[in-house]
Amino acid sequence: MAMEYSEEVMDHFMNPRNVGEIEDADAIGEVGNAKCGDIMRMYLKIENGIIKDVKFKTFGCGSAIATSSKATEMIKGKNIKDAARLTNQAVVESLNGLPKVKIHCSVLAEQAVKAALLDYCKKNNLDVKKTLGEDFNIKNEHECESCE
Ligand code: FES
């Protein structure tokens, strides 16, 4: 049975925003899903605590591309504390949903943003909780149901 994707998902899959890399990035986050082998890398340019630029590269499925594209739009221009609160549910909602078996792909997008923010703290010797919020955490890797 064919899966149903929203127009918004198809748009971000066909015309992904902010694809590429930032050569002098202030932070890079790389995450992967061990089961399906998909990899995502997120580059951030940060000035005075604001995400000035963001680019991503993904070696992954269409849903991984669409969700990371959407995630970059959602965090660009935000301060890092707000960006650290990005959830995969929020990304999925703003894409008007994803098939259930593809939800784990959106987790990869959330993890990549958070891994990059963590990298920023490490590189600048910043206290993670103070910089990104007391409740900052990176979700555990989700099982890739569709890749078994
Ligand atoms: Fe999409 Fe694994 S991240 S299939």
Notes on the protein architecture:
It is a single chain. The chain has 148 residues and is an alpha+beta fold. It has helices spanning 7-14, 62-75, 80-83, 88-94, 103-123, 128-132; strands at 27-32, 39-47, 50-59. The protein has a 3-stranded antiparallel sheet with strand order 1-2-3. The chain is globular, with a radius of gyration of 15 Å. It starts with 6 loop residues before the first helix and ends in a 16-residue tail after the last helix. FE2/S2 (inorganic) cluster (FES) binds at residues 33, 36, 38, 60-61, 63-64, 105, 108, 144, 146-147.
Q: How many strands, what sense, and barrel or not for the largest sheet?
A: 3 strands, antiparallel
Q: What is the number of helical segments per DSSP (H or I, 4+ residues)?
A: 6
The CATH class designation is Alpha Beta
Distance between the termini: 17 Å
Q: What fold name goes in the CATH topology slot?
A: Sufe protein. Chain: A
The helix-and-strand class reads: alpha+beta
Low-confidence stretches: none
The total number of structural domains is 1
Proportion of residues in β-strands: 15-25%
Strand order of the largest sheet: 1-2-3
Quote the average pLDDT.
Answer: 92
Can you count the beta strands?
A: 3
Cα-atom radius of gyration: 15 Å
> At CATH's second level, what is the architecture?
Alpha-Beta Complex
| Percent range of helical residues | 25-40%
